[in-house]
Amino acid sequence: MAAAVTGMAMLAALAILVPSARGLDRAEFPPGFLFGIATSAYQIEGAYLEDGKGLSNWDVFTHTRSRGIDDGRNGDVADDHYHRYMEDVEIIHSLGVDSYRFSISWARILPRGRLGGVNSAGIAFYDCLIAALVKKGIEPFVTLHHFDLPHEMETRYGGWLGAGIREEFDYYADVCFKAFGDRVKYWTTFNEPNLFTRLAYVLGKYPPARCSAPFGTCESGNSHREPYVAAHNMLLSHAAAVHNYKKNYQ
Predict the structure, then answer these.
(1) What is the SS3 assignment for 95?
(2) Residue 80 vs residues 45, 61, 62, 65, 105: alpha-carbon distances, Å
């Protein structure tokens, strides 16, 4: 009997402390609270070389270092979001959420960075996606860098190890603010930069797969120094983009 009473007390406490145990109601959240879902460009878009898109660091990594991927696959097609985004927006809407966080593929907007010009087809794709979301009453949240960048940034600057990439990111951010800022009010510059620098420059698990002992056995890299250099350049890039947005677009 005592065990049964104790069990009932625990269930009652769980229902109070963990709302999901008894179900949630929107009325329990403050006005303006947004429910949402999130994705990243490389994970879902596919169409990795269509309509003028350039190679990204992940395109090259998955094709040349497939053993670094658990099942050896790549994102060439992924969820085919590039061709099926309207279906995906309908699915998002059917879930009843009111926000959607997605990332823009830098290589789809600027295949070669500042030197190659803006890819109009890439702009058109995200423009249509944002328009479809807004039409359904879904607030777009846009991430500019979710671990992917044009492969040319790796060859030209050594990725985030080169100071020159700061100006590239500032230009890329400005292109996006100018193209989509009339409808996008929520921007994220970098997704989890601390995690990215650790996986890419300490452990060598993510492109450009740089590391050194005792953290890993990469072909090149310095796990004691390079993560700080990369993080430094990302922080300065973030600061420049935020300054630009607040001054010219907000």
Answers:
(1) coil
(2) 5, 19, 17, 22, 14
Q: Are 66 and 72 in contact (CB under 8 A)?
A: yes
**Is the pLDDT at 8 greater than 60, yes or no?**
no
CA distance 132 to 92: 11
The pair of structure tokens assigned to 114 is: 């500042």
What class does CATH assign to 34-194+231-249?
A: alpha beta
pLDDT-derived band at 15 (thresholds 50, 70, 90) equals: low
Q: Among candidates 248, 50, 57, 37, which has minimal Cα distance to 145? A: 57
Stretch 220-245: mean pLDDT, rounded? 98
Please give the structure tokens belonging to residue 139: 């607030």
Q: How far is CA 45 from the centre of its chain?
A: 12
Q: Answer whether 0.70 is exceeded by the pTM.
A: yes
**Average pLDDT of the chain?**
93
The set of catalytic residues is 192
CA distance 1 to 212: 60
